[in-house]
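Fold tokens
===========
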Amino acid sequence: MFDFLKRGRLIRRGLASRKIRRRRARSELARNLEYAPYMKALIFVVFAGGLAFLVFSGQQPEPTKNFVIALLVLATAITQLWINQPKTFSQSSRILLVFGVILAQLAVTKLLLVICNSGNYQFLKPEMGGLITPYAFAPLVLSVLLGRHHGLYAAFFVSLWSSILFGPIDAPLLVTSLISGFTAVSLTLQVRRRAKLIRAGIGVGLAIWLLSLTFGLIGPINWLFPTANDWGMIGLQSALAVGNGILTATLVGGALPILEQLFQITTDISWLEASDLNHPLLRRMTIEAPGTYHHSLVVANLAEAAAEAIGANATLCRVCSYFHDVGKLVKPEYFTENMSFERNPHDDLAPTMSVLIIIAHVKEGVDLALKYKLNQRIIDIIQEHHGTSVVRYFYQRALQQHEDARAGGKIMKLREDDIPDVREESFRYSGPKPQTKESAIVSLADTVESASRSLEKPTPQKIESLVNELIEERITDRQLDDCDLTLGELKIIAERFRFTLLMMLHSRIAYPKHGQKTPKPREDTLRPDVMAVTRRPPTAPPVSAA
């Protein structure tokens, strides 16, 4: 209350801004629950209770023995998740997603098998239970949301639990569930279109159909006397088997947006939808900061190519590159790529003021991202893409002015204490440093693309030297310490940057005018086709300064 009144007085006196920096609300309670051990234990206890309900419901022999087996499988599943997926095991929400999806599939499987075996429905006969069981639901969901390793994990353990729901282990059900789950995962290694889910569903349906033929769930079929077969029933059973996979994939496609929102997960499908260049912020950028817009597109191409080369999320890199410099929309004319040729606004400012404007584009970008409700990964990369690096141009300019002031001070007989020192920390971005591979790739692509604009008559040797120097500078400045990029991956990234830049900065022959003789091609007649060095204000900072 008192802080609000104090702020109001400062605003009226002109000593504070009316603008309030947006911040994403972070609940301390939610964070504690996310990493609390007792929450993980509670999820496992609830899952065990669900298994007990499924095993003991219905008429089946030796339910206690089956429940003990189910608990032993649960202990194995928990151990495997802890060893092979420590990041997932550390988050309660991820554990809830994994075991919640598995329990949902087990419940639907139990319900369908009970209905088919009850005999109360003429259409649903006992032998049809194996044809309509959603074997691939959990593997499909977890493969798309969390990756293929989680999909394989779900396929294996959901098959083991499904096979003991009715007493003795059902070998055909176990094998069908395993192969269907593995098929689903293998067909969804990289899902960027929802149509690929349907194709995966068709593949799963064909696998179920072949396995059902093998185990005699379809038929019986008399191969010696085809006319004796009930082809109508066989066709219906085949349609159920194939339709099972297609219907499961359709349900997964519908459930994905809900699960993404609930568990704060962004799939490649959503990233591809977010790459629409008609986003309001990007449309503003094309009008208010066209140079920054073009720079972001080139950074997106560089980052996507490098991410694909090392197996990182290329679609995420492309989308985040579009928005990484969105904060420049607040003062676009202070950044070189948007400057007019007549005037450089930094000529009227001290280096300390110029660097405040340059550095502020990160905070302004976060503010705009929160206002337009962009994905949290985009906000993280906006914050991290400069790390804690130095705005080198204005730092050197401040040092030069400091030296000039000291030289003039000697003439004027001023004390050195009267001349303020230049501190490097004042010219550094606030960070944090890149925390992920994708963030580091966007950061490097941004630096390389900016610096490449200052190359005159770019050659492969100049481009390679520039890329290597910039990456080595980032390593020396310890900007890549917090991400898990290896030296081998950095070498691949540098090679991909060099190749991509070489293709974009290629030269063309200068064509003669109409009626003019064709000149012989000479080296000095070639010039870059794009991003050629143009006349800038004589005191303008290089593009890489921002």
The longest strand covers residues 507-508. The mean pLDDT is 84.
